[in-house]
Amino acid sequence: MSPPPVPPSTVRQARPLPARPRAVPFGRWGPRRKMLLVLAPALLSQYGLDVLAVGPGVWTFVIRLVWALSVALSALWMDEHSAPSVRLHTAFQCTAGSLCFIALVFVTGGSGSVYFNLFPCIPLVLCLLYPQDSLSATLSGALCSAGAAGLLWGAGHPVTQSLLWAGMVVTVTVVGAYGASEFRKAQRAENEGRLERARREALETLAISERRRAHSEKLATIGQLAASVMHEINNPVAFIGANLDFLEREVLSEQRAASREELAEVFRETRTGVERVRQIIGDLRGFSRMDAEVPTECALADVVSDAVRIARLRLQHVARLEVDIPAELPPVLAVRRRLAQVLLNLLVNAGDALEARGREGSEVRILGGLEGSRVVLRVEDNGPGFPPHVLSRLFETFFTTKGPEKGTGLGLALSREMVEQFGGTLRAENREEGGARLRLEFPVGDSTRSPS
Ligand code: ADP
């Protein structure tokens, strides 16, 4: 049978990276540009204060205008998505702002200006405005301390007073820069915490969806067994029904034909039938449960018997099953139910492969052994084996040669994934004497070591 095409969902194409937004004047405004474009008119409107404080003046207006324009133009040309551009524009705004402020103090009276006492505030305000860029604030601090000292010195004040003011501006700048760096650290720690929380949540969601996927595959395997399960339950139900009819006749008839021993035998048979139905349903329910996924040391013999109990429903009509697991085989570290699911997948596949051949001479064998430090489990059948084009694609997701009502193409792909989760390998090959062989290898289980 030729393999069906791989569904488009399995073919992943590289998606182009989203283009970085470009800085366009009046284009998309981020929070930083918006803030600056509000700041620019605010700076210009401060001319009103200048008029109140020192009266109208051309130079004060010109300085306010230059200051506002430097902020507005820099905001328009800044690329908020490029760190170097932001750093460059911030340095420009801080330098231009500081020089404009020094000029404003100069034209409004120098060391006697109403604005002179605001010198230490300029670097402090810049530290608050740009907490992520202490360098620009430091630059402004240096300019302002030199400006304050220069104006005092130029007005003939003692050098000590100049030095005092310069020192005060520098101190305020250092304190502001330190506060900004602490703020940055706290912000970084908060971001890292948020990222870590998001990463942990994503991993938890992934683990849940992994479990759901494995669970659906398990249910799909059980669905494939539905016909065999119905047949297996039908037999005891049929003779339970016949026994009940017999008992009803016996109870209602005037003369009892059956002896007490015969009646006891019929009850025993009926109870055995009910037990058998209960056992099948119990096995299926136990298998389909979603259990805790903590790997523990598992004896392969137990895992095999879990899978065989269910697989027998399917295999007994198509093949003879032989199991040979040496009792002294060391345990493997795995989730028992998951490993049983893997084995059940392989056994159901073997049953499907042998179906056309008929029960006569059909065989499935499960063989366990120790090879060096690896526990090896082989599941073999004497069916048609794997044609080359099937063998090369066996473990691809959604690859199946079965009809849609029978195959999902997930069994072997998921089985390999699960085996690898427990540090093992799953390989397929054709047997020399004909038929398929699936080979599972595990490191010897050691509860002190976790599987990858
Ligand atoms: P599915 O059983 O749903 O088709 P699997 O991933 O379990 O999906 O199997 C993929 C294909 O591998 C099957 O469709 C079948 O062609 C092939 N295959 C698996 N086991 C055997 C086997 N024992 N003998 C022959 N072919 C097999």
Overview of the structural elements:
The protein has 452 residues and is α+β, with helices and mostly antiparallel strands. The chain has three domains: 28-197, no CATH class; 225-289, Helix Hairpins, CATH 1.10.287; 295-452, Histidine kinase-like ATPase, C-terminal domain (Heat Shock Protein 90, 2-Layer Sandwich). It is built from 13 helices and seven strands. The chain has helices at residues 31-45, 47-54, 58-77, 83-107, 121-129, 134-154, 159-224, 226-252, 260-288, 300-315, 336-355, 388-391, 411-421; strands spanning 296-298, 320-324, 332-334, 363-371, 374-381, 425-430, 436-443. The strands form two sheets. A five-stranded mixed beta sheet has the order 2-4-5-7-6. The protein has a two-stranded antiparallel sheet with strand order 1-3. Helix 5 packs antiparallel against helix 6. The protein is rod-shaped and about 135 Å long. The model is unreliable at 1-18 and 447-452 (pLDDT under 50). Residues 345, 349-350, 353, 381, 383, 386, 390, 394, 399-402, 407-409, 411-413, 436 line the site of adenosine-5'-diphosphate (ADP).
- Structural class estimated from helices and strands: alpha+beta
Identify every distinct bound molecule in the structure, by name, code or SMILES. adenosine-5'-diphosphate
Total beta strands: 7
Please estimate the helix content.
Answer: 55-70%
Count of individual helical segments: 13
Strand line-up in the sheet with most strands = 2-4-5-7-6
Instruction: Please state roughly what percent of the residues sit in beta strands, choosing from under 5%, 5-15%, 15-25%, 25-35%, 35-45% or over 45%.
Output: 5-15%
Main sheet characteristics: 5 strands, mixed
Separation of the first and last Cα atoms: 37 Å
* Order of SSEs: HHHHHHHHHEHEEHEEHHEE
EC number: 2.7.13.3
InterPro entries: HATPase_C_sf, HATPase_dom, His_kinase_dom, HisK_dim/P_dom, HisK_dim/P_sf, Sig_transdc_His_kin-like_C
Pfam family, one: HATPase_c
Transmembrane segments: 58-78, 90-108, 137-156, 162-180
